[in-house]
Specification:
Blueprint: E1 2-4, E2 10-12, H1 16-43, H2 48-56, H3 75-88, H4 90-109, H5 112-124, E3 129-132, E4 148-151, E5 158-168, E6 175-181, E7 190-196, E8 202-204, E9 218-228, E10 233-234, H6 240-276, E11 278-279, E12 282-283, H7 288-316, H8 322-347, H9 358-368, H10 375-388
Parallel strand pairs: 3-6
Antiparallel strand pairs: 1-2, 4-5, 5-9, 6-7, 7-10, 8-9, 11-12
């Protein structure tokens, strides 16, 4: 069944519960997110209280099992919720996506005891997560990471030393999913750990000064003799890199949905402005050149939405979806860059000012081409899958 949202987006939602979730999301966005988005982004304010509200509302654990406090929703529903949040403010949509990414390793690879002990608070207890894979010298080549975890003979604990870089929620997260080297060089020597955000020896550098997404803190995290019990090791020793890549397949869909949300927001502003702005005695929307520009923008939004939903439905069916997820991340974030650029052009001089949100959208869109695997890395993933004949 197709539902039309207030901005005219037609959505195919599988259940009444999904429709209620989308309605709840739009209500929170309208009341709590959109009115303060520009001011808080300009001030570099992270809305932690809003994430507490999202947690209480059941929106921070949507794609995870209800047994441990998740929403039990298919990915196609979760991603459409994420799109709505990102359209209201990208800091919020991306924050929810990163939190979900941070829960993935425990939810999928943790033991029953680990899930029972930690997941309820992570999914619905107001906690916020960080995903710690990248390092100053290990970005696209994540398997070259140097952060090391060494067993201490006392109690079987692990002691972690090293630095993680480009960490969303760095310095404010309540827990971190950390990939650290426990064995040989390369991908097979990496293990995953669940580290409390207040662990002794864990500290954060000052947040990075970014061109956009100023409300979302991104910082280096320093691990100086951080002691972690073996009970917080996720999966087997040496399995961490496979766990990280598995999480990123799903995380890339989150970025794709956020990109579509940002693109939809930019398109909505451009369409509204074109209908109101008058030049040469008539609305600028009457001019064919501008109409074609809007038509191309709208086509890219719809194509991106269809692509990420196709990948999500493959995932929900238990079918391989990694190649499609990489395509969705690649296409949707590249489209977001084009659409936000065109939105600024539609508004002309006004688009270049902070009086309208499209200049902020343009600065934010660039980040989406970089995070969770640059778009050059997505092309590597896609071409490798094609040559192997996989999805």
């Amino acid at each position: 069944m197709a539902d039309s949202t207030p901005d005219g987006v037609e959505r195919r939602l599988p259940t009444d519960e999904a429709r209620e979730l989308l309605a709840l999301t739009r209500d929170i966005a309208r009341r709590e997110i959109t009115p303060r988005a520009a001011e808080e982004e300009d001030a570099g304010h992270f809305p932690r209280e809003l994430f507490t509200l999202l947690s209480r509302s059941g929106l921070l654990g949507l794609p995870y099992d209800t047994e441990h406090g998740g929403g039990g929703q298919p990915y196609e529903v979760y991603l459409q919720v994420l799109e709505e949040l990102a359209a209201a403010r990208l800091t919020v949509g991306l924050g929810v996506s990163v939190h979900s990414l941070s829960c993935h390793a425990l939810a999928r690879y943790g033991t029953d005891e680990q899930r029972a002990a930690h997941l309820p608070a992570m999914l619905g207890g107001g906690l916020l997560g960080a995903y710690c894979l990248s390092e100053p010298s290990a970005g696209s080549d994540a398997a070259a990471l140097r952060t090391r975890a060494v067993r201490d003979g006392v109690g079987g604990d692990w002691v972690i030393d090293g630095t993680k870089a480009w960490i969303t929620h760095g310095g404010i997260a309540d827990f971190c999913t950390v990939m650290a080297r426990t064995g040989e060089e390369g991908a097979r020597g990496i293990t995953a750990f669940l580290v409390p955000g207040d662990a002794p020896g864990l500290s954060a550098a000052p947040p990075e000064r970014k061109m956009g997404m100023k409300g979302s803190p991104t910082a280096q995290l320093h691990f100086d003799g951080v002691r972690v019990p073996d009970a917080r090791r996720l999966g087997a020793e040496g399995q961490g890199f496979a766990i990280a890549l598995d999480a990123l397949d799903s995380g890339r869909l989150g970025i794709a949905a956020c990109a579509v949300g940002l693109s939809q927001a930019a398109l909505d502003v451009a369409v509204a402005y074109a209908g109101e702005r008058r030049q040469f005695g008539r609305p600028i929307a009457d001019f064919q050149g501008l109409r074609f520009l809007l038509a191309d923008m709208a086509t890219q939004v719809e194509a991106g939405r269809a692509l990420y939903l196709e990948a999500a439905r493959l995932r929900d069916e238990g079918r391989p979806f990694g190649r499609c997820a990489a395509m969705a991340k690649l296409f949707c974030s590249d489209a977001a860059m084009r659409i936000t650029t065109d939105a600024v052009q539609v508004l002309g001089g006004y688009g270049y000012t902070a009086d309208f949100p499209v200049e902020r959208y343009l600065r934010e869109a660039k980040m989406l081409q970089i995070v969770e695997g640059t778009n050059q890395i997505q092309r590597v993933v896609i071409s490798r899958a094609l040559l192997k004949g996989g999805r």
